[in-house]
Amino acid sequence: MCGIVGYVGPRDATPIVLGGLKRLEYRGYDSAGLAVVQADGRIGVRREVGKLTGLLEMVDGDPVNGQVGIGHTRWATHGEPSRRNAHPHIGVTGEVAAVHNGIIENFFALRQELEAEGRHFASETDSEVVVHLVEAYLAGGADLETAVLRALSHVEGANAFVFLYSREPDRLVTARIGNAGGITVGLGEGEMFVASDIPAILEYTRDMVFVEDRQMAVVTRDGVRVTRLDGEPVEPEVHTIPWDPVAAAKGTFRHFMQKEIHEQARSITDTIRGRARLEAGHVRLEDLELTPEEARALEKVIIVACGTSAYAGLVGKFVIEALARVPVEVDYGSEFRYRDPIINGNTAVLAITQSGETVDTLAAMEEAREKGARLWAIVNVIGSQAMRIADGYILMHAGPEIGVASTKAFTSSLVDLYLLGCYLGELRGVLDRVQLRQRVDDLARLPDLVGRVLELDGEYQRLANLFYDREHALYLGRGINYPIALEGALKLKEISYIHAEGYPAGEMKHGPIALIDEAMPVVAIAVRDHVYDKMFSQVEQVKARGGIVVALATRGDEEMATKADYVLFVPPTPYLLSPVVNVIPLQLLAYHLAVRRGCDVDQPRNLAKSVTVE
Ligand code: AGP
Questions:
Q1: Which listed residue, of 57, 164, 251, 544, carries a Cα 20 to 30 Å from 415's Cα?
Q2: Is 38 helix (H, G, I), strand (E, B) or coil?
């Protein structure tokens, strides 16, 4: 999950590279650096451990300028966070600089070979190995492109690189092998940009070319030339990114997470737009098409995902089984490929992944592909690996999600699952026109319901002031809202560091009831649905043991308001869409608790936005 930025053009590369790294901070990192070919032909390098501010101060005090440059935020995999292990790496000649994302799996053997040839290493990283290989080929008379091609033929593992070379100061050479995070080339006017992901360069251009697996790109200020690693030329496909550059900034909010929570009425509208035809009572999925025969032949859907996206998958089981009557299994991406799943051509494996780069989810997709499944993805990042390897995909259209804790992408993936359920239900003849129109009408009213919940933000902030010093919490839910109990607990623990567990409410008496005391708030999702009476009973059991209950209840439910210690009201919502509405108070509660506890909400400790290493 390292961040990469590059520039080649008439402007000074330094501020562009540093600005791009700043917009990639959310990816999580422990050191940063940049390299620029200076006017005197020498490469200037600045690297610093810790947050980006350290590097900015270093560059202020000891400037480096030039018209071609690369930068990197590093998430340590080999070698502790330090200046010498920070990227870019420049080998021994000082004429080549490289930044790298991924893991060179055979780096130790390569390093031993190079050391046996008398080469000395300045760092403990795997990345430096490739710079030495490139230098050796350059010394043999190769140009940069050829040297990189030859060097990469030695490399094993999923990796992405960007190189610059002081003797060819008009270009960057970039290449990727496997799923090590993307490489995007931004097409400017007489200047070009390279980045590991879109927000880093979106303010300069919306026109992007994605470097695919086993491809190389030579980038000069006048354009990009793409070839496969076997030398075969590739006609680059230009994607125009609809995201508004400002949208990727915080706006008036204090944190990206806060902004993204409050964007959900709009992001859900964007997710629905163009897909649900209210008058016709029809759902269309522009990038996932099936014939009625294919839909009817479907025997099973297996959802694979990680973290919050896995909890979306658990909701998806309820939704797709209810709307399309096809069995759904849900697996963690990290578990799926180790259980020898039963798959055939009538199985659809559906990956849910905001980043589209989560290595466990991508590995599950590869396993599904090898076993002959139909491969689908619900994904947010346009051009991501998951989007590109799927047979069909449904974009979340949530816009850039910068906060490490996923919020709007989660609710957009729930809407995509609902759209998929309606789509399959229609094709399979499970939903008739009247039923479809009702489902689509329910969906059309969802943004308004979400907006009403967001207006209650002040209530969640007041509640957070009561519980900010607690160290444990228990979240209970039933049915389609059990995954929301899991997600509410995950939100709390990942940004406030309060230990929180989500549990199926019916399981409380089989263990967790032993934990109940006045120190541990119990958040109970007890909205008026077919399991309400069971939830009411659960709340009574907690109260009978001196516990504290925060009930998520349907507006007007005075009975629950009387029974619970605190109540968070939500508007009545159709059952299959209720998780979208019910998760929002839990997102806001976690947010305000984390802020009250002084936590780094957008970049929680130890976490990264996209987990691209195992
Ligand atoms: C969610 O708040 C976390 N950031 C994490 O669990 C995340 O959902 C998980 O890593 C999956 O990411 P993806 O959706 O990009 O695959």
A1: 251
A2: coil
Cα(570) to ligand 1 centroid in Å equals 26
The total of other beta-carbon atoms located within 10 Å of residue 329's CB is: 16
**Strand-pair partners of 338:** none
The type of residue at 532 is Y
- Of 315, 401, 611, 614, best ligand 1 pocket probe by most atoms within 8 Å of the beta carbon: 611
The answer on pLDDT for 248 being more than 90 is no
Cβ partners under 8 Å of residue 57, min gap 6: none
Q: What is the pLDDT of residues 275-319, one digit of tens each?
A: 988 777 889 998 999 999 999 999 999 999 999 999 999 999 999
For ligand 1, the distance from its centroid to the CA atom of residue 256, given in whole angstroms, is: 15
Q: How far is CA 515 from CA 243, 299, 467, 519, 567, in A?
A: 46, 42, 17, 10, 21
Ligand 1 atom index nearest CA of 308: 8
Q: Is ligand 1 within 6 A of the CB of residue 538?
A: no
Query: What mean pLDDT comes out for the span 214-234?
Result: 96
E-strand spans in 506-613? 521-525, 548-554, 566-570
Count other C-beta atoms under 10 Å from residue 242's C-beta.
Answer: 11
State pTM to two decimals.
Answer: 0.74
What gap in Å lies between CA 67 and CA 56, rounded to an integer? 18
Instruction: Report the share of the chain in percent with pLDDT over 90.
Output: 82
Evaluate the omega torsion of the peptide bond into residue 88 and state whether it is cis, within 30 degrees of 0: yes
Catalogue the active-site residues: 2, 609
**Are 237 and 209 contacting, i.e. CB atoms less than 8 angstroms apart?**
yes
Cα(105) to ligand 1 centroid in Å equals 25
CB of 610 within 6 A of ligand 1: the answer is: yes
Pair of tokens at residue 515? 């934990």
Annotate 306-341 with DSSP letters as a single string: -HHHHHHHHHHHHHHHHHH---EEEEEHHHHTTS--
> What is the four-CA torsion angle of 71, 73, 75, 79, rounded to 10 degrees?
50
Q: What is the C-alpha to C-alpha distance for residues 300 and 288, in angstroms, rounded to an integer?
A: 17
Lowest mean pLDDT segment, chosen from 80-89, 288-297, 605-614: 605-614
